[in-house]
Amino acid sequence: MSFRLLLLAALAVAAPACTGEPVPTRTEEQALALAETAAGRLKGVLFTEMSRAIQAGEPADAVEVCGGAAQKLSREVEQSAGFPVRRTALKFRNPKNAPDDFERRWMETVAQSRAGDPADPFWEVQEGKNGQELRYLDPLYVHTICLNCHGGAEVSDGVESYLQEHYPEDRARGFSAGDFRGVVTVRVPFQAPE
Ligand code: HEC
Questions:
Q1: pLDDT in the model for residue 66
Q2: What does the pLDDT read at residue 10?
């Protein structure tokens, strides 16, 4: 066997270890509890960070903190959880946050719900490649503070120009307080105990 073939064979053997982390053994209830905790953590971290930034200065400064920080904070929460935890929306600002079919379909069913009568979180167990995956969607609603960057006329000129520069295809504008805004979406892989 040539060196190249050997190398390819070695890579083929190594591949499963690279692509799939071993799927942890846990019950559906345990997976659900982990999803709820992780979603709560991401919401808490982002809300605290955003409120602090808005109180500290102008929304135009806060939008920079939130823009760069949101992706970084999501990654930190994901790393400590050990599974994906992110935000998505039908009207998304960052194309990296675009929903997949499962997320989009569910959000369409609750898009008209309001903060005063919010939709309950939704979850579903799906078959994954190496086991199962609990997919958890936790709805988010627009508070007054969000209008600084997701409203219409409330958005200041400074924020406006930041958004135009960094998110030219922004769809996350024109919201009112109480509107459905999107979800925190969590995917917990698991294998049921024997
Ligand atoms: C200071 C400005 C600012 C405020 C205030 C703000 N956001 Fe955002 N929001 C952003 C930016 C910038 C992004 C894009 C982040 C990224 O690049 O991932 C974003 C993204 C999001 C996303 C991810 C989906 C998407 O559109 O890309 C959700 C969901 C979201 N915001 C909800 C909220 C909610 C709910 C509030 C109020 C509790 C809020 N935001 C307040 C600036 C803000």
A1: 65
A2: 37
Q: How many Å apart are CA 52 and CA 79, to the nearest integer? A: 23
Q: Is the CB of 144 under 6 A from ligand 1?
A: no
The amino acid sitting at 133 is E
Ligand 1 atom 1, closest CA: 63
Q: Residues in the chain with pLDDT < 50? A: 1-19
C-beta separation of 169 from 158 below 8 A:
no
Token pair 């200065």 is found at 57
- Give buried/exposed letters for 64-80 (b at 16+ CB in 10 A, else e): ebbbebbeebbeebbee
What are 106-116's pLDDT values in tens digits? 999 999 999 99
Distances (CA, A) of 114 to 41, 117, 119: 22, 5, 8
> What residues have CB less than 8 Å from 133, skipping those under 6 apart?
125, 126, 127, 187, 188, 189, 190
65 in contact with ligand 1, CB cutoff 6 A: no
